[in-house]
Amino acid sequence: AHSDGDVLLHAVCDAVFGAFALGDIGEHFSDSNPAFRGMSSSILVARALEIVRAKHPDWRLGSVDATVVFDAMKFGRARKQKMRENLAELL
């Protein structure tokens, strides 16, 4: 992961795969595979959803509950809301 947003999106991928016992993000998008190097985490989430929907076509994501913990940075309401909006649009 290259940013806080990446960490959150990678966690979403893992949660989606884990809910269906489909492994984790590394099993589907190995960081040793050059095809995934530098790929946007948003694309990985979209592909994770495609993988799950291919196996479970009637499944729809109901909600995502995630916590991002920072060591030193403050995370204002506006930035948090923007992150929510971006994630909702992606999902």
Automatic annotation (TrEMBL):
Ranges where the 2-C-methyl-D-erythritol 2,4-cyclodiphosphate synthase domain occurs: 1-91
Q: What class of enzyme is it?
A: lyase
This protein's species is: Toxoplasma gondii
Query: So which domain of life are we looking at?
Result: Eukaryota
For this protein, the record's PROSITE patterns field holds: ISPF
Catalyzed reaction equations: 4-CDP-2-C-methyl-D-erythritol 2-phosphate = 2-C-methyl-D-erythritol 2,4-cyclic diphosphate + CMP
Q: Where are the transmembrane segments?
A: none
An example Pfam family from this entry, by short name, is: YgbB
Protein name per UniProt: 2-C-methyl-D-erythritol 2,4-cyclodiphosphate synthase
Keyword list (alphabetical) reads: Isoprene biosynthesis, Lyase, Metal-binding
Looking up InterPro entries in the UniProt record yields:
MECDP_synthase, MECDP_synthase_CS, MECDP_synthase_sf
Could you tell me which SUPFAM superfamilies the record lists for this protein? IpsF-like (SSF69765)
Q: Which cofactor does it need?
A: a divalent metal cation
Which pathway, per its entry?
A: Isoprenoid biosynthesis; isopentenyl diphosphate biosynthesis via DXP pathway; isopentenyl diphosphate from 1-deoxy-D-xylulose 5-phosphate: step 4/6
* Enzyme Commission code: 4.6.1.12
Q: Which GO terms describe its molecular function?
A: 2-C-methyl-D-erythritol 2,4-cyclodiphosphate synthase activity; metal ion binding
Q: Does the keyword Metal-binding apply?
A: yes
GO aspect biological process, one term = terpenoid biosynthetic process
Give the source lineage, highest ranks first.
Eukaryota, Sar, Alveolata, Apicomplexa, Conoidasida
